């Protein structure tokens, strides 16, 4: 590797992780007598078969011929969707969602007639979450349940409009809140939620300003929303409603929801915001409130379980290319030039990996969260505040070349806020459009405590507790990471 023109993409040091997170089995993947400290260790040690393993909270005995049936029954239980009829005895009504050119006025005519251009998703429709049958646990990226890597189907609920709904649109008050940090596409989601609510016939739509803080902070008033108001907000980045981290106690937020007579709450945010949404959902159920709490997965880190990707990720990777290209040009133009780019990602590594793959100008891609001491401090969202690994690398590289007497011109670029404050690209804009629409469909269908996402290329609904059990990380045994190593030509430092 020549020193001149060397570039490197580094992910932001946003969490201290143990080596175990490098070899990260899924919650469905049992461990057959070996310790999952690293894939290197996995390769060296033989697999000692056990007949008992734990999948989720279910003890499985593989000597039992019915273990697969028990596993699938447990899966169906875990991924069933909470519904307002769990606490209310309600009769559904025919949907008001119609895409006919000459829309039937609310309450008039039969909108379920066969001449409608749009179809409905049946409540029993399912999408298959995993489609690869691995022959062996040694297969790259293998996610096995039993020692033989038996094929087990993982079905989840398909997203989309239902033929029957559980709310009267003209009586609904719907609220939208954006939480956590910025991500490209927030305005696109807000816009589509408003558009779809109005298509159903909802007239009372409000935005809660500055995250959960807007429910309790004095001086922050809810903002009336309409199609005319949000028509062009997708043309700029940021959040039309504003964002913030942290919030009041769940009970205080639900007090505010109850006082405002909110029937539907749409929470746009990442793992922490999803946890907050689920807590609000549980408190509403405890109080027997007819409120649908629906989340939309937002994080440029792409670290939410089960989902192919979250909105903002594609745009962040695309924006990262600008920083990488600048670092590459600077390094190529300097005598003994080195380009160092730090990318954010909070321990997941996906932005760094995908940016390295897509740029074609990277010599080394590192995901180094476990190399610096963890701080005891946390931000308002409860995330650990971490040391800056980019600055650490910058100092170490300079010292190394100074110690060996070689002049080196290091160009360090940190585009953290540039990659998240911009407008969504075309790919993310489409994803945001569908996620926003599906969020409204799931609320009108009577679901609560769930989120919508794209899994195995299909749009699905998932219960929030299942997607927040742990963040998703780059798996160094995955085919994608192997592709990254092949692309950069770097050795396997792990």
Automatic annotation (TrEMBL):
Cofactor(s) recorded in Swiss-Prot or TrEMBL: Mg(2+)
Catalytic reaction annotation: beta-D-fructose 6-phosphate + ATP = beta-D-fructose 1,6-bisphosphate + ADP + H(+)
Entries under Pfam families matching the protein: PFK
UniProt key word ATP-binding: yes
Keywords of this entry: Allosteric enzyme, ATP-binding, Glycolysis, Kinase, Magnesium, Metal-binding, Nucleotide-binding, Transferase
One record GO biological process: fructose 6-phosphate metabolic process
Chain ranges of the Phosphofructokinase domain: 174-441
InterPro entries, alphabetized: ATP_PFK, PFKA, Phosphofructokinase_dom, PKF_sf
Molecular function per GO: 6-phosphofructokinase activity; ATP binding; metal ion binding
GO cellular component, one term: cytoplasm
Keyword Kinase appears in the UniProt entry: yes
Function according to Swiss-Prot or TrEMBL: Catalyzes the phosphorylation of D-fructose 6-phosphate to fructose 1,6-bisphosphate by ATP, the first committing step of glycolysis.
PANTHER family: ATP-DEPENDENT 6-PHOSPHOFRUCTOKINASE 1
Protein name (database record): Phosphofructokinase domain-containing protein
């Amino acid at each position: 590797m020549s020193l001149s023109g060397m570039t490197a993409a580094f992910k932001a040091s946003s969490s201290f992780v143990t080596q175990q997170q490098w070899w990260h089995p899924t919650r469905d993947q049992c461990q057959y007598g070996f310790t999952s400290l690293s894939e290197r260790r996995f390769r060296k040690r033989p697999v000692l078969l056990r007949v008992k393993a734990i999948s989720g909270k279910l003890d499985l005995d593989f000597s039992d011929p019915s273990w697969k049936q028990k596993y699938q029954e447990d899966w169906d239980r875990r991924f069933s969707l909470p519904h307002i009829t769990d606490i209310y005895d309600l009769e559904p009504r025919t949907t008001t969602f119609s895409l006919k050119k000459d829309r039937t006025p609310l309450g008039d005519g039969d909108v379920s007639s066969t001449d409608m251009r749009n179809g409905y998703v049946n409540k029993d429709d399912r999408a298959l979450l995993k489609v690869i049958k691995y022959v062996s646990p040694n297969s790259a990226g293998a996610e096995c349940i039993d020692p033989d890597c038996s094929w087990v189907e993982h079905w989840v609920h398909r997203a989309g409009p239902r033929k029957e709904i559980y709310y009267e649109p003209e009586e609904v008050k719907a609220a939208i809140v954006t939480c956590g940090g910025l991500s490209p596409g927030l305005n696109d989601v807000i816009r589509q939620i408003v558009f779809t609510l109005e298509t159903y016939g909802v007239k009372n739509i409000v935005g809660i300003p500055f995250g959960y803080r807007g429910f309790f902070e004095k001086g922050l008033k809810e903002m009336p929303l309409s199609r005319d108001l949000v028509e062009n907000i997708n043309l700029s980045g940021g959040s039309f409603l504003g964002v913030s981290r942290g919030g009041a106690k769940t009970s205080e937020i639900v007090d505010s929801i109850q006082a405002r007579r909110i029937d539907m709450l749409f929470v746009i945010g990442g793992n922490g915001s999803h946890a907050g949404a689920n807590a609000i959902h549980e408190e509403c159920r405890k109080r027997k409130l007819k409120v649908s709490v629906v989340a939309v997965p937002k994080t440029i880190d792409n670290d939410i379980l089960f989902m192919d990707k979250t909105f903002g990720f594609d745009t962040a990777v695309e924006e990262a290319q600008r920083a990488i290209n600048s670092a590459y040009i600077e390094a190529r133009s300097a005598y003994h030039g080195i380009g160092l780019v730090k990318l954010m990602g909070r321990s997941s590594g996906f932005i760094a990996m995908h940016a390295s793959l897509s740029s074609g100008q990277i010599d080394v891609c590192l995901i180094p969260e476990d190399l610096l001491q963890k701080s005891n401090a946390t931000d308002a969202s409860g995330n650990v505040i971490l040391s800056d690994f980019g600055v650490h690398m910058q100092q170490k590289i300079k010292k190394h070349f100074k110690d060996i007497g070689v002049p080196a011109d290091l160009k360090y670029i940190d585009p953290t806020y540039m990659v998240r404050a911009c407008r969504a690209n075309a790919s993310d804009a489409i994803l945001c459009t569908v996620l926003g629409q599906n969020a409204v469909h799931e609320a009108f269908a009577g679901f609560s405590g769930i989120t919508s996402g794209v899994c195995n290329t299909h749009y699905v609904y998932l219960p929030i507790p299942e997607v927040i059990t742990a963040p998703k990380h780059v798996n160094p045994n995955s085919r994608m990471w192997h592709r990254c190593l092949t692309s950069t030509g770097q050795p396997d430092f792990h």
